[in-house]
């Protein structure tokens, strides 16, 4: 049996496609499980963060992602399988939500964490049904 070795252009193309898939969606959230912000609606993003994410770095990354936008919403999960691909969120997606950031046009920010999973997060906390 003979195996073919890909030529350099084919290997370079495959590597470029792999790298592009890893970073699709734009900026990254802080924390151990850094992931790209994925747009799920106009000015609305989904992101997967590490279960041990650094709260201050994650909050800074969320604010940076929304900088310059009149209004912006970011939903964050610790498990990729639970993350939304669109809005509105389903009941299971809402239940699995780890963090929600909302920036309103009036210049007001609201950041809510699942304080059970992220004990170092300051109130207010996400209210789960």
Keywords:
3 helices, 129 residues, disordered N terminus, alpha+beta, 5-stranded mixed sheet
General description of the model:
The protein is α+β, with helices and mostly antiparallel strands and 129 residues long. Helix content is 26%, strand content 21%. The chain is built from 3 helices and 5 strands, in the order αββαβαββ. It has a 5-stranded mixed β-sheet with strand order 1-2-3-4-5. A hairpin with a 5-residue loop joins β4 (97-103) and β5. It is globular, with a radius of gyration of 18 Å.
| Main sheet attributes: strand count, strand direction, barrel closure | 5 strands, mixed
Distance between the termini: 59 Å
SS-based structural class?
Answer: alpha+beta
Percent of residues in β-strands: 15-25%
Secondary-structure element sequence?
HEEHEHEE
Roughly how much helix do the residues carry, as a percent range? 25-40%
Write down the Rg.
Answer: 18 Å
What value does the average pLDDT take?
79
Please specify the SSE layout and strand pairing.
Layout: H1 8-22, E1 38-41, E2 44-48, H2 55-66, E3 72-77, H3 91-96, E4 97-103, E5 109-113
Parallel strand pairs: 2-3
Antiparallel strand pairs: 1-2, 3-4, 4-5
Brief account:
It is built from three helices and five strands, in the order H-E-E-H-E-H-E-E. It has 129 residues and is α+β, with helices and mostly antiparallel strands.
